[in-house]
């Protein structure tokens, strides 16, 4: 007899748990691919330049970002299982193209296909969150996302010391498992949706974004601030702390584990006492920890600050997405989450470019300080924002039947 996941994981349905497992597998492969496998395999095994690797990573995120809105539109109109399965199959072909790639265009195409194929999974996961347990379930999803993203590069790094081929087949096996699990998803989106044209939906989205004025800055700025850290943290750790690669990996693991541990408790706290002060506090805590990172030079302090960064990140993630989710129309979950995710994705594209430029033009500490100032600015903005402004948005959403995500089955 099958054991219900609901009994093992209170507040998480069987359906959401299955989606979270697929999300974990997808992010495991993407993290391993982008952070570890592609940079090493493309440069050391295939002899391509580091600049090509950077371009491939940018193309991956650009493709992922551009496709989100399209995928959301399709998810509102066609079978979820069809869209997810098709995307995973497309990305599977991209992985195969990578190992067969003997030219630059094949490497770039493989990166783009992986970005395109993984996009629908996150959108479907967001659409399965229960309104009554929004933040805690968002914390659960982010735990799966972060667990895959963090574990993938660590495990692949270990396997690549043994064999590139073994590492590649692990990635293929993990992705293949996600494909098999996706065949057991609910076949269709049974929720009603409005039969309106793309032009009408675009007009509706523009009006909604104007109504969401107080939330729009956070969509881009927070991901841009985090993205600035991606290209510079490794060199910063070596220069500031004199860390070896293994010590730096330890710091990353500690920060990731801290985030994963606190995500669900922070989500539950938001469900009980959610307010803009909690969101602003998360941004402020994260900014303060970043500032502290530039002022210490020992491994012990680095580990302590990694824990602090994890707590701050855990406070922000479920609270922010739960707040956004309050203003998503039930009948247009896919397309709206797609557009919102695309806006947030602009920061992921801009941030690494800006962080790399600041580090090259000045130094890594300047890039970290700018990132911290951006997050502190967000904290101040939301702390000083009158509650009535957010209440107006929420009231407008409720009056039009928004803010009730699709229920888990």
Question: What report would you give on this structure?
Answer:
This protein is mostly helical and 409 residues long. It is built from 16 helices and no strands. α2 runs antiparallel to α5 (104-127), α2 (14-45) packs parallel to α6 and α4 (80-100) runs antiparallel to α7 (164-182).
Number of strands: 0
Low-pLDDT residue spans: 1-8, 190-196, 397-409
Structural class: mainly alpha
Mean pLDDT: 75
Q: What general outline do the C-alpha atoms trace?
A: globular
Reported for the largest beta sheet, the result is: none
Give the radius of gyration: 21 Å
What order do the helices and strands follow? HHHHHHHHHHHHHHHH
Straight-line distance between termini = 19 Å
Number of helices: 16
How much of the sequence is in beta strands? under 5%
Query: In which range does the helix fraction lie?
Result: over 70%
Q: Care to give the gist of this entry?
A:
With 409 residues, the chain is mostly helical. It is built from 16 helices and no strands.
Main attributes?
409 residues; mainly alpha; disordered N terminus
Q: What are the SSEs and their pairings?
A:
Layout: H1 5-8, H2 14-45, H3 50-75, H4 80-100, H5 104-127, H6 134-160, H7 164-182, H8 198-211, H9 216-227, H10 233-241, H11 245-273, H12 276-293, H13 299-325, H14 333-361, H15 364-384, H16 387-399
């Amino acid at each position: 007899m099958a054991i219900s996941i609901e009994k093992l994981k209170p507040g998480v349905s069987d359906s959401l748990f299955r989606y979270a497992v697929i999300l974990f597998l997808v992010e495991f492969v993407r993290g391993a691919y982008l952070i570890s496998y592609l940079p090493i395999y493309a440069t050391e095994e295939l002899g391509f330049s580091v600049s090509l690797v950077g371009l491939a990573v940018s193309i991956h995120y650009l493709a992922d970002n551009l496709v989100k809105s399209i995928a959301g539109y399709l998810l509102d109109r066609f079978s979820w299982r069809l869209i997810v399965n098709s995307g995973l199959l497309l990305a599977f072909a991209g992985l195969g193209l990578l190992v067969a790639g003997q030219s630059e265009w094949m490497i770039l195409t493989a990166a783009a296909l992986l970005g395109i194929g993984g996009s629908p999974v996150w959108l479907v996961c967001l659409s399965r969150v229960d309104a009554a347990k929004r933040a805690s379930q968002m914390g659960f999803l982010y735990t799966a996302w972060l667990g895959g993203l963090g574990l993938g590069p660590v495990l692949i790094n270990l396997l690549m010391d043994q064999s590139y081929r073994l590492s590649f087949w692990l990635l293929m096996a993990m992705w293949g498992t996600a494909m098999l699990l996706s065949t057991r998803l609910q076949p269709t989106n049974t929720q009603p949706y409005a039969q309106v044209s793309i032009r009408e939906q675009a007009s509706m989205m523009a009006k909604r974004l104007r109504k969401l004025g107080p939330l729009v800055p956070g969509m881009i700025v927070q991901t841009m601030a985090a993205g600035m850290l991606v290209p510079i943290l490794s060199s910063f750790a070596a220069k500031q702390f004199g860390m070896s690669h293994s010590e730096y990996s330890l710091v990353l693991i500690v920060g990731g584990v801290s985030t994963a541990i606190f995500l669900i408790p922070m989500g539950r706290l938001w469900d009980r006492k959610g307010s803009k002060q909690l969101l602003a506090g998360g941004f402020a805590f994260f900014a303060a920890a970043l500032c502290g990172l530039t002022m210490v030079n020992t491994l012990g302090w680095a580990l302590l600050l990694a824990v602090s960064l994890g707590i701050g990140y855990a406070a922000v993630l479920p609270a922010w997405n739960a707040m956004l989710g309050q203003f998503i129309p039930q009948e247009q979950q896919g397309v709206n989450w797609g557009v919102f995710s695309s806006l947030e994705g602009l920061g992921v594209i801009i941030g690494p470019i800006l962080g790399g430029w600041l580090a090259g033009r000045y130094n890594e500490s300047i890039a970290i300080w700018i990132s911290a100032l951006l997050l502190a600015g967000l904290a101040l903005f939301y702390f000083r924002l009158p509650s009535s402004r957010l209440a107006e948005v929420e009231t407008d959403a409720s009056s039009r039947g928004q803010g009730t995500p699709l229920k888990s089955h």
